[in-house]
Known about the structure:
Elements: E1 3-4, H1 9-38, H2 43-62, H3 73-89, E2 103-105, E3 108-110, H4 113-128, H5 138-157, H6 162-178, H7 183-202, H8 205-215, H9 226-238, H10 263-296, H11 300-324, H12 342-359, E4 361-362
Antiparallel strand pairs: 1-4, 2-3
Helix pairs in contact: 1-2, 1-10, 2-12, 3-4, 3-5, 4-5, 4-6, 4-11, 5-6, 6-11, 9-10, 10-11, 11-12
Amino acid sequence: MAKRVSVDxxxxxxxxxxxxxxxxxxxxxSAVMARERFGSSYSFLLRQLGWAGAxxxxxxxxxxxxxxxxxxxxxxxxFLGLTCLLLVGVFLFHDSHNTxxxxxxxxxSFQPSELAKPAIILYLAYFLESRWQQIADWKxxxxxxxAPSLLLAVLIVKEPDxxxxxxxxxxxxxxxYIAGMKMRYLGYGxxxxxxxxxxxxxRVPWRWHRIIAFLDPWKDPQGHGFHIxxxxxxxxxxxxxxxxxxxxxxxxxYLPEPHTDFIYANIAEELGLWGAVLVVILFSIFLYRGxxxxxxxxxxxxxxxxxxxxxxxxxxxxxxxxxxxxMMPTKGxxxxxxxxxxxxxFITLASVGVLLNITQQTD
Length: 363
């Protein structure tokens, strides 16, 4: 029978350290840009600080709500339906950089695709709780389990945001694997995705140019290869000890998005190899503690919920750092807890609040 214990202190500490590091690096990466655009070096920092405060408050509230409250069908399907409506609703707003990813209400903006990840996790935990022992039944269990993920991924791809859609499917695969799905089904899924990926990448010129730039960024150093080249310059010039906090050069209008998608490059440049490795260590501890929580819990709902939240954070971190290091084509995936972005930070912190609540209930 489950008993109440104290919250996982390692996990709680790692989360706060990542948020604190993120605030420092957002200020370092954005101060010059903010002063140029808005007349104040603190513009991006103050916004991120506000979202961090709201996110931590949400995390503290959620971590004191029994996770079992979320297994009700009314909550699961309301959350899933609301997410679908919001993903459709983005197309009613004006596009930004030829994409429909944001719902803007006055000074506030919100990215509904961030909600898709916890919505998928909640549905999978709910659906698989009583069916995981029949996970080999692809017709009555696997397909219905994956169907909402596929629907949300299609809506996200339409924005277009292929990177987040891929992250959603990776989260789904992680939960299904922990539920006992055989690897051959993952192989079937990958085979089935080859044609859609071909159409979405090879047949879409700007995505195909990203692949070419990934393979040889110097072929177009002032165009499609610019992001990768500037990122690698930032990482390589950091050396072992780094240039020092606030002393990076690539953020001075060379490296695009130094406070969002490429903030890890700024960390490597200013804090050096030690700083970059520290971030990897913190996410590795998060992964270890998250999987440990999932595998030690005998409640299937808690196990799948914990797995999904852990995968949500770690998959995004892995994609972001791989892009910065030139190991993957450029994707607009933020570094969890660290990158500038209100909706991402708030939803991630609220989600890990559920994980922290699960840590308080062991068998």
